[in-house]
Model the fold of this input.
Amino acid sequence: MSTFVVFDLEFTSWPGALEGDWGAPGQLREIVQIGALRLREDCSVAEEYEALVHPVVNPRLSAFFTELTGIEQERLDREGVPAAEALGGFLGFCRGESVLSYGNDMVVVGENIGWARARGEEVKNGFLDAHFLDIRPWVHSLAPETVTSNSGRLWQTLGLPQPAPGKEHSALFDCHSLAAAIRHLCDRGAALPLGGLSQPR
Done:
């Protein structure tokens, strides 16, 4: 059975960072959490990937970030892994798949791979064996009410049951929310833009 991947990131942030496009001195979009789901054609979950990642330039999480995501510094210090390790694991999870995000998360992945390699770290696996796609325009075209929704709120906006335990701005929960939205839209007759992959029914 064919599969595809949806993923979501949480990365370092501060008050006003989004509005300022992380343009203030010292503000980088360093990944702190990666969540990904491998989905079957019917959008059921075949496998999960999750990692907490140690940021390098800003190793101390801002209070803003912790309040937004619920990720505490103590948990990150205890469970976090180096960026190169997490990114390599994620890219291995995505190998050979169509990989969907709700926004430009693939750009942030690329930034973090570049920084890791610039530090002399080896990132195993690579982008070439996966097809990354921002699916947000597809979702918005089919459900205009989602235009102001983040990935973790899609299920609420579409009036769907809560897809998993947790809350928005947790990367894996946001993946479940996006998967629920995709399943809902495909059940209404939409076709995912996944190239040769058979479409969910």
The chain is about 35% helix and 15% strand. The helical segments are 63-69, 73-79, 83-94, 105-118, 136-142, 154-157, 171-187.
